[in-house]
């Protein structure tokens, strides 16, 4: 299970990468020239979906046994899945399209900066613990495990920010389907909304819907929460490149995943590693942007532009069909969420050119 407890930054002295899906990034190097403290950016990908797109304590177990699972997510299985065994019930059946288990997720979004029009590749990592009944799966628990963006600027989180966001947007209860269709599996999952530096109540009108995001979230600055304890609402994004400094921001965003044959995202049967197409949106406001050497920075207040017809995608890697198998794989750490996230980042690193 995921252990929910206070964290120490002693695991590693410097936190290289950050995390929360789709802060998307985050206005990496926009030359807005704006002198005010607040900049809004609204980004949507409505209408670009594929033609047929189809927190709380963790559970003690996903209920799938104590066997060796299906590996550590380093390749794609096209043979028969090893289901493991449960000492109480014997072998656990695993279907040809089965999300049961512990999964590492690595999103790759490909927005463009607002200065040169260059791509700003952004990776977001997560952990899902999933159960499946028939064709329907449900996320039982999750972690937000970091973000890294590169290109004209490199964007990461400090340790305090990572700890602040890691459990703020649990995806518990997110449901989808994973269904055999000929020689592949069809994947569909509910759109999921998240917030950064804002109370959970701001999502009440969105979760469970496909509602468009607000034109901007500037009106929410009055209820911004300081998730990383640095004295500013929102969270701090550490940037280096054309300009170095900190960018403090809030946002509301969403994402969803699905098959897309045109981009080659068609999970094979019995797959333990596969990719999916991703759509997403974000509405953001910058609270304050400061240069490393002091003073405000207009460069850090700009926005990145979502390119909806780019190959925005997510890769899923099975860590184990049950907790025992996930621990044995050396990535999932039962008693240390922060180390689990570091391990996911290290084993499935940010890559600018491919998912």
Architecture overview:
With 355 residues, the chain is mostly beta strands. It has one domain (17-347). It is built from three helices and 16 strands. The chain has helices spanning 159-165, 323-328, 337-347; strands at 39-43, 85-86, 90-91, 101-109, 112-113, 122-133, 136-149, 153-156, 175-181, 184-189, 192-196, 235-241, 245-258, 273-291, 304-305, 313-320. Strands 1, 4, 6, 7, 8, 9, 10, 11, 12, 13, 14 and 16 form a twelve-stranded antiparallel sheet that branches. It has a two-stranded antiparallel ribbon with strand order 2-3. Strands 5-15 form a two-stranded antiparallel sheet. Strand 12 and strand 13 form a beta hairpin. It is globular and about 60 Å long. The protein starts with 38 loop residues before the first strand and ends in an 8-residue tail after the last helix. Mean pLDDT is 78; it is low at 3-91.
What is the string of helix and strand elements?
Answer: EEEEEEEEHEEEEEEEEHH
Radius of gyration: 20 Å
**Count of helical segments?**
3
Intertermini distance: 28 Å
**Percentage beta strand:** 25-35%
User: pLDDT average, as an integer?
Assistant: 78
Largest sheet properties: 12 strands, antiparallel
Q: What share of residues is helical?
A: under 10%
By secondary-structure content and strand pairing, the structural class works out as mainly beta
List unreliable stretches of 5+ residues. Answer: 3-91
- What is the approximate shape? globular
Total count of strands? 16
Number of separate structural domains? 1
Please give the oligomerization state of what you see: single chain
């Amino acid at each position: 299970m995921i252990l929910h407890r206070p964290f120490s930054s002693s695991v590693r002295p410097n936190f290289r990468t950050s995390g929360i899906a789709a802060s998307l990034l985050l206005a990496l190097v926009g030359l807005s020239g704006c002198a005010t403290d607040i900049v809004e950016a609204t980004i949507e990908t409505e209408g670009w979906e594929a033609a047929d797109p189809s927190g709380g304590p963790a559970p003690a177990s996903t209920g799938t046994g104590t066997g060796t699972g299906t590996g550590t997510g380093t390749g794609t299985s096209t043979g028969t899945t090893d289901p493991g065994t449960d000492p109480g019930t014997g072998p656990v059946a695993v279907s040809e399209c089965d999300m049961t288990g512990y999964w590492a997720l690595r999103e790759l979004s490909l927005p463009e900066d607002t200065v040169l029009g260059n791509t700003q590749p952004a990776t977001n990592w997560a952990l899902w613990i999933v159960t499946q009944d028939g064709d329907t799966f449900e996320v039982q628990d999750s972690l937000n495990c970091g973000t890294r963006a590169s290109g004209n600027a490199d964007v990461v989180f400090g340790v305090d920010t990572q700890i602040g966001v890691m459990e703020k947007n649990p995806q518990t209860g997110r449901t989808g389907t994973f269904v055999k269709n000929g020689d592949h599996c069809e994947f569909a999952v509910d759109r999921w909304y998240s917030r950064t530096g804002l109370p959970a109540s701001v999502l009440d009108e969105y979760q469970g819907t496909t509602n468009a995001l607000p034109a901007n979230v500037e009106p929410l600055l009055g209820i911004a929460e300081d998730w990383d304890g640095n004295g500013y609402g929102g969270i701090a994004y550490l940037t280096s490149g054309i300009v170095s400094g900190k960018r403090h921001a809030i946002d509301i965003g969403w994402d969803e995943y699905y098959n897309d044959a045109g981009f080659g995202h068609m999970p094979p049967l019995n797959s333990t590693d596969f990719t999916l197409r991703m759509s997403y949106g974000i509405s953001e406001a910058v609270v304050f942007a400061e240069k490393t050497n002091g003073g405000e920075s207009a460069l850090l207040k700009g926005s990145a532009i979502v390119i909806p017809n780019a190959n925005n995608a997510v890769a899923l890697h099975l860590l184990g069909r049950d907790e025992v198998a996930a621990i044995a794989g050396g990535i999932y750490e039962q008693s240390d969420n922060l180390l689990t996230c570091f391990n996911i980042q290290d084993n499935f690193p940010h890559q600018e050119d491919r998912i």
